[in-house]
Design goal:
This protein folds into 2 domains: 236 residues, Rossmann fold (3-Layer(aba) Sandwich), CATH 3.40.50; 108 residues, Rossmann fold (3-Layer(aba) Sandwich), CATH 3.40.50.1100. It is an alpha/beta fold. The chain is 40% helix and 15% strand. Helix 3 crosses helix 4.
């Protein structure tokens, strides 16, 4: 089986009735007010771009974000800020389900503010990811369920214990906080576009439930309207719920306990709030084997010629691995032709996490 499959969506109609919030200026103002906020680096991989015969490759390196080694602090911090703004209390308990980075970001924010965090993790969660969350004094509970069932369990737990669920996917009657998390991620793409000083022709973003991808696509659409760059949504082949949902034109859940090394993307059910946006405004849906992200991790550590190295973890490196593999591997000529990459192409990728240390 091929390591990469691409579903072309370039003839999709650009719906104009998406009703997600778009108060991006409020998000940026909040992040700028945080003492620990600093824009992350945008890596320009000119030597790799030359090797691939395209104009530019930029990678937004999120490994230094808030000292958390991942981008998730942008969403968790803004969502918690909004909760406190709307419901002032003396104390809070924040609850979430995570494969790693989101839970760590929520635990960090709760710890910064002196509040409690209880983080549920699905069966098979790695010890190093558990320890990274516990480092912020959060209580971590690893369940015997998959990610999506653990989300539902965390939701019920929060209701029973008068706690706030801070989850990056919508549930029945639960949309505002996931939307705030999605909006929080807009700061990452806003920074990247300001650092580039040119419009990308292609943007590739990885997806789990699709909250991050939704945040990126929503910001791009509000900025460029119907002159969007080509947008590709990348998922692990074992849990490609967005790819499968687009292909079958209905929401598809991936059941069981699938495995992928891309732990932060190991989510089997699309976010219902962002799926219509992704389906309407993305050009390509892509699923990759873990081998592709391993290649991206290696390229980040061992760059070509004058490019600078950086740290890219399993859930962060897949875009980099994908772009090199799809261009250079002759087996993918048919798929490569779908992407409309030329010598004038300017590609923007997001390395959403650095490598996580072993324990």
């Amino acid at each position: 089986m091929k390591e990469i499959k691409i579903l072309s969506n370039i003839t999709a109609k650009y719906l104009s009735d998406i009703t997600l919030p778009n108060n991006f200026n409020d998000v940026a103002k909040f992040h700028l007010s945080m003492p620990s906020y600093q824009p992350t680096q945008l890596m320009r991989l000119k030597s790799l771009a030359d090797e691939l015969n395209i104009k530019e490759i930029y990678v937004k390196d999120e490994s230094s974000r808030f000292g958390l080694n991942a981008f998730k602090g942008l969403g968790a911090s803004y969502a918690v800020h909004r909760i406190i703004e709307k419901d002032p209390r003396e104390s809070y308990t924040f609850v979430s389900c995570t494969d790693g980075n989101h839970g760590k970001a929520l635990a960090w924010m709760a710890h910064e503010l002196g509040f409690k965090a209880i983080i549920f993790m699905p069966a098979g969660s790695e010890t190093r990811r558990v320890k990274a969350i516990e480092a912020f004094n959060a209580q971590v509970i690893v369940t015997d369920m998959n990610y999506d069932d653990t989300v539902r369990y965390a939701s019920e737990y929060a209701k029973k214990h008068d706690a706030y669920l801070v989850q990056d996917t919508t549930l029945p009657g639960y949309t505002e906080i996931p939307n705030d998390i999605m909006l929080g991620y807009s700061t990452m793409v806003k920074e990247a576009l300001e650092q580039m000083n040119e419009k990308p022709t292609h943007v590739f973003i990885q997806a789990g439930v699709g909250c991050l991808a939704g945040g990126v696509v929503w910001y791009l659409f509000n900025k460029y309207k119907d002159e969007l760059p080509y947008i590709g949504i990348i998922e692990p082949e074992t849990v490609a719920c967005i790819y499968e949902s687009v292909e079958k034109n209905k929401l598809i859940g991936i059941g069981g306990n699938p495995y992928t090394a891309m732990a932060g993307l190991n989510c089997g059910e699309p976010n219902p709030a962002t799926f219509p946006l992704l389906k309407a405004k993305s050009s390509f849906f892509i699923k990759c084997s873990d081998e592709i992200t391993f290649k991206g991790m290696n390229r980040a550590k061992n760059p070509i010629r004058n490019d600078s190295p950086f740290s890219a973890g399993e859930s962060g490196a897949v875009g980099l691995g994908f772009i090199e593999e799809i261009v250079l591997n002759p087996d993918y000529k048919e798929q490569r032709d779908l992407l409309k990459l030329t010598t004038d192409s300017v590609v923007l990728l997001f390395s959403t996490e650095g490598e996580l240390a072993e324990v």
